[in-house]
Design brief:
By secondary structure, the chain is an alpha+beta fold. The chain has helices spanning 12-23, 81-87, 95-109, and strands at residues 28-31, 34-37, 45-46, 54-55, 61-64, 76-79. The chain starts with 11 loop residues before the first helix and ends in a 9-residue tail after the last helix.
């Protein structure tokens, strides 16, 4: 079964290396003309969307800064699943708008993450 939009995420090896890099202290990206370091320590990293969750290798996801752009180091940031889903492909959302979407999902469903359609 293929993913919608193809599998532009790369091989499993590339995804593994990307997750390890997102957790590292070196992980950064240029956002609005400024270099932003994500604050990883090699084991954990905060969600870059500001929800306060501390992510581990098992929970970190690569959120593309420019939605639809490449999964390259300069275009990915660490995000938790709820924030990544709430932001979706809307790169213009502020942190407060993402938090509001996550809160609306919890209020509507009682869960952080919406159920996936089968």
């Amino acid at each position: 079964m293929s993913r919608a939009g193809g599998d532009s995420r790369g091989s499993s090896r590339n995804r593994l290396r990307r997750k390890l890099w997102l957790l590292s202290p070196e992980a950064s990206a240029e956002i609005n003309g400024e270099i932003v370091y994500f604050g990883g320590d090699g084991e954990t990293v905060p969600c870059w969307l500001g929800c306060g969750r501390v992510l581990t290798f098992a929970t970190v996801e690569s959120d593309r800064i420019v939605p639809g752009g490449p999964y390259r180091r300069g275009n990915v940031a660490p995000a938790c699943r709820p924030c990544n889903l709430a932001r979706s492909d809307d790169g213009e959302l502020a942190q407060q708008e993402v938090a509001a979407r996550v809160a609306a999902t919890v209020a509507r469903t009682g869960r952080l993450v919406p159920a996936l359609a089968v």
